[in-house]
From TrEMBL:
Record's protein name: Biogenesis of lysosome-related organelles complex 1 subunit 1
UniProt cross-references to InterPro entries, sorted A to Z: BLOC1S1
An example Gene Ontology biological process: endosomal transport
Regions that span the bilayer: none
Species assigned in the record: Oryzias sinensis
Protein family: Belongs to the BLOC1S1 family.
Xref: PANTHER family: BIOGENESIS OF LYSOSOME-RELATED ORGANELLES COMPLEX 1 SUBUNIT 1, BLOC-1 COMPLEX SUBUNIT 1
Length: 125
């Protein structure tokens, strides 16, 4: 009777060990599956971040090129405006010069008229 109880106890212990080992393997398999799923999920996020970073890098390079072109264009516009301003100043200078010449010519014309009238009056007297 004691030996039968001992055998039954050993059988039940072996069954429990087997059940425990099977559950341990299932738990390890589930944990491995969960870990792989998490890593896959993270890898998708990392891959998307990498793709986004490459797109951003490309956009930055494009923007840098466009900014350089815009800077050159702006420098050309500034140069043109400065040239235009200089031309306007020169036109103003020419206008002042023309007025000065006109005033001188009027003064000369008035003096010549005066001399001519004085000459006519002295010739007529």
């Amino acid at each position: 009777m004691l030996s039968r109880l001992l055998k039954e106890h050993q059988v039940k212990q072996n069954e429990r060990k087997e059940l425990q080992e099977r559950r341990r393997r299932e738990a390890i398999a589930a944990a491995t599956c969960l870990t792989e799923s998490l890593v896959d999920h993270l890898n998708v996020g990392v891959a998307q971040a990498y793709v986004n970073q490459r797109k951003l890098d490309h956009e930055v390079k494009t923007l840098q090129v466009q900014a350089g072109q815009f800077s050159k264009q702006t420098a050309q516009w500034i140069s043109m405006v400065e040239g235009f301003n200089q031309a306007l100043k020169e036109i103003g200078d020419v206008e002042n010069w023309a007025r000065s010449i006109e005033m001188d010519m009027r003064t000369i014309a008035t003096a010549l008229e005066y001399v001519h009238k004085g000459h006519l009056q002295s010739a007529g007297s």
